[in-house]
Amino acid sequence: MKRVEPKRTTATFSLFIEHALQSTYVELPFEMPSHVEEIQVSYIVEAKENSIAIIDLGIRDSHRVRGWSGGARTHFSLGLEKATPGYLSGPLSAGNWAVLHNAYKIPEDGCTVKVTIEFTYATERWLKGDLHTHSINSDGSYTLEENAAIMEQLGCDFIAMTDHNTSSQNQSFPRNTSVVMIPGYEFTTNFGHSNFLGVTDPLDDFRVSNQDDVNKRLSMARERGAKIVLNHPHCDFCPWEWDFQVDHDWVEVWNGPWTDRNERTLNWWQQQLVTGRRLTAIGGSDVHRPDPYVKHAMPCTWVLASTKTIEGILNGIDKGHVSISYSPEGPFVELECGSYKIGEVVPNEERNRTIRLQAEKLITGDRLKLISNRGVEQEVIVSDNENGIAELSFEAGHIKFVRAEVWRYFKETDCLLMATLTNPIYLD
Q1: I need a labelling partner for 179 at 20 to 30 A (CA). Which of 82, 158, 200, 291 fits?
Q2: 299-350 confidence digits (pLDDT tens)
């Protein structure tokens, strides 16, 4: 499988500081490479035994100071959207940067500062997370910190906390987490729910009484830059009863544990694809509180993203680079047609129309399906000698799309349930 890890390089620098520089600021210049997503900076101070050397730490870019921690830290990280407290996240533009030191106390015979910088480069790779969760900011019982910690423990990369008709959660995200916090808002009406993703404050007022009101709320969220999702549209308790022709980007085909409501949305989505519509399917746990069945990242949405950032993840979803598994542990499935990936369109002049499927973390008995606008094109049952890995190929010809499903027997329910669902590769 092409489970790419981001490229990383390390640079080390050494700077001798003589006693005469005590109480001055010293720069250790370095060149920031292009396409960097995050840097990790650490330093140590070496002085002769029984000598006391105190060196403060900070950093500047080519325009301004980007952070300062004095003598409080020996390490910090700086990224496009996240940074160690005391440091400013933001663009990591190529050019002249410098690690900053305050030579606060320098021994008579000087000291040596050794700095290590690890550069992590923007690399297209699969990230996983949950696009539909709740917190104490609405009717959930988890704090924001608890949600982030659970996702981190699961090895996930992102979470959207989509509390009902409020954006307060987006104002107080925890900082000390590696999980990307995607701003979210669940537009909750009496006749259907919709998630707004990527915008801190998408609405001024959620209250609606008719379709025209709904259209105006969606228009406001769109104008503010939100991505719009129709949530659990065929749910038994809160289906989407407004017009399905409303402005939206994606549809939540998989909400929580796989049940009939998801099956109905899957069938509806399949029909949309058959008509030629290219509509991206996503998933979300809709977790509110501890529950034996409804859990974080179940289902888990996988996104092929250019960067581990809000923008990178949402852009990846926009391109249809999405696969959904029942848990963060998979199964994981990729589809390719030559250089074209899930969500992409294979042009008509492309002679290679062979769809290749690669799957991992399968178990014996899993049913692997390739599905097109004509229905199931191939189905195989995973045997016990395949080590959880399977590959299929299919000559697509002139069909409209190909997508994949994995069905698995779960003893908890004593039946076959969806274990993985991919978005299609489209064919012109």
Answers
A1: 291
A2: 999 999 999 999 999 999 999 999 999 999 999 999 999 999 999 999 999 9
> Does this model's pTM top 0.70?
yes
Tell me 21's DSSP state. G
107-127 tens-digit pLDDT: 999 999 999 999 999 999 999
Contact between 285 and 130 under an 8 Å Cβ cutoff? The reply is yes
pLDDT in tens, 67-91: 999 999 999 999 999 999 999 999 9
Taking the alpha carbons at both ends of the chain, their separation in whole angstroms is 26
- Tell me the sheet residues that pair with 164: 186
CB atoms within 10 A of CB 80: 20
Domains and CATH numbers, the chain: 8-121 (2.60.120.380), 124-329 (3.20.20.140), 331-428 (2.60.40.10)
Whose tokens are 């959904």? That residue is 324
* 315: three-class secondary structure by DSSP: helix
Cα pseudo-dihedral 136, 297, 370, 307, rounded to 10: 100
Which residue, among 276, 250, 426, 229, has the nearest Cα to 343 in the 3D structure? 426
Length of the chain: 428
Looking at residue 53, the DSSP 8-state letter turns out to be -
Residues 6+ apart with CB under 8 A from 277: none
